[in-house]
Structure formats: structure tokens, C-alpha cells
Amino acid sequence: MSDAASSAATAAAAGSAAQPKKVVVRFRATGNAPILKKSVYKISSAQRFQALILFLRKELGYKASEPLFVYVNSAFSPAPDEIVNNLARCFGLDGQLTINYATTPAWG
Fold first, then answer.
1. Which domains does the chain have, with CATH numbers?
2. Residue 102 region, left (φ>0) first, then alpha (ψ -120 to 50), else beta?
3. What is the residue-level pLDDT of the chain in tens, covering all 108 positions?
């Protein structure tokens, strides 16, 4: 293989690796929170957790002034600036990141 062909192949591989992967997110209502019509979504792994919260608020029709508590795996609420890929890699199960949401505090 020539140097030009090998450089092109390397550049093509780097270009495809640069595209953000998708993370499968499963939303689960907790307590008296409304249930989403569709509970499984694919989002970009490069997104921050805050984007996921804003998306959930939009899907539920919640305003910023309405309380919404969001947890990962029924355990903890990550910082809004946490990267979704990090959460999925560390706390995902069966290739999915489970996000529980409630209108009142459910877990500590």
C-alpha cells in the first residue's frame, strides 16, 4: 500500500471515529411523575447531562420553574455538566443508560 493510500485510509478512519456515538437512554417515571409515550431515545454521547434534562422537560411539557428531579439508575443525580458518554460507560447496564425522573425528591 502506498503512503498516500495509507494516509487516506488513516484520515477516513479518524473522520469516522470523530463522529459522536449515540447512547441509548431509557427514561423511567418515579412516583407521581407523568409517563412518557416513548421511553427509549438515542442521544449523542458528547452531550452534557443538562441537555438530557432540558430534553426531558420539553418532552414532559415542564417549564423551568416546575420541579423535576433526575437520577441515574435510581441512585444519584449527576452534575449538569457531566458528559453523557461518561455516565453511560460507568453506569450503563445492557448498553442503556437508565434515567429515573420524579416531581419530588425520590433518592438522596
1. 21-102 (3.10.20.90)
2. beta
3. 444 444 444 444 444 455 458 999 999 999 889 999 999 999 999 999 999 999 999 999 999 899 999 999 988 999 999 999 999 999 999 889 999 999 988 876
